[in-house]
Amino acid sequence: MASGHDIKTSQATYNGFIKAATWGTGFCILVTAFVVGLIAS
């Protein structure tokens, strides 16, 4: 069974991944909106 330290490390890794995925999604939305704006003009 995992010790408390392993769980804390895993939670930190998971939280970092979720934060990166959130920022990455926002960045992709902005880039997509920019490209659509370029194409539409």
Automatic annotation (TrEMBL):
InterPro entries: Cyt-C_aa3_sf, Cyt_c_oxidase_su4_bac-aa3. Residues 2-34 form the Cytochrome c oxidase subunit IV bacterial aa3 type domain. It holds the Pfam family COX4_pro_2. The chain crosses the membrane at residues 20-40. Keywords: Membrane, Transmembrane, Transmembrane helix. This is Aa3-type cytochrome c oxidase subunit IV. Gene3D superfamilies: Bacterial aa3 type cytochrome c oxidase subunit IV.
